[in-house]
What we know:
By secondary structure, the protein is α/β, with parallel strands linked by helices. The chain has 12 helices and 15 strands. The strands form 3 sheets. Strands 6-7-8-3-9-10 form a 6-stranded mixed sheet, sandwiched between helices.
Amino acid sequence: MTTDPQLQPVLKVRNLAVQFPTRTGVVKAVDDVSFDLYRGKTLCVVGESGSGKSVSARSVLQIVDRPGRITNGSMELTRPDGSVVDLAKLDPRGKQIRAIRGREIAMIFQEPMSSLSPIHRIGEQIGETLRIHFGTPKDERRTRVIELLKQVEIPNPEKAIDRYTFEFSGGMRQRVMIAMALACNPSLLIADEPTTALDVTTQAEILALIKKLQAEYGMAVLFITHDMGVVAEIADEVLVMYRGKVMERGPVEQIFHAPQADYTRMLIGSVLKLESKAEIRLKREPEAIAPELLLDVRNLSLTFPGGLKAVNDVSLTVSPAKRSVLSARAVRARPRWDVVSCVFTIRSKAPPISAARTARSSTSALPRARN
């Protein structure tokens, strides 16, 4: 009698425990955690910071930071050939687990800038996985990387493959990380809060991309998050954690509409509170007269020497008692920039100050970026 592979879990975790010995005692980061992951399904692990979500995910790949170690439990991975291996019993530095990392189980980390090399082109970084696991020749690697960049919807992949990390926005860097994770067609994808550092619009695009690629590849997804809105968007099942323990586990509809644990109800309640306006805003009287502008930016454009247009005709205004957020960081990639059609007007009690820069401005003339 043959069992349907779709009904077999790709990963079966039972009674997982991870501890960190310290001078003041032992910290139980993960305590008796169990779950199953199935092909084509997404399990969201949710909880506040310090609940053990990321440590549970990193344990699967045996990359728990020292002095942490797995003290109990099993993690049975069903491989493409039908064999089963217990990841908990493998040497974290051994050949067996290194052959699984990136090939059968891939991971997208929270902050792409700390995971990507700033001194290597992205094509080299994505292709490295293919070279290590399959020994793919250089020409074939380049073709495969361009194909992956197309799949994650990066514009002009033939040119993007030769760019460095700093030439991409946060959302594009995360797409590069997804392309790297999918290079070897893994059975399981672990995503550790991949949208935390992104704006709302880019976050929605990344979530839609992961769902689309999951449908194409048929892989299981373990998604780590503390955002209940993200959980409602992509989860099939939900695992709620608190202080290393599982508080509740079940289908996403049950978790949101009939939560059993008090902690789960508290998490959902905190989201509902954030959806309403703060009391101070409700009591604030509407402005009768439009305030005078403090900052007026018109037609700001920025082009990298390679032809990449980072900013294209951006305009914005900032008024007193108002907040406009435009986050930017200047990176000294080459000796010169192309900054065109930019006018800043700063208004105060003193006469307005205007600053305009056009074409081939030296980096020494530009204001240094501040974190």
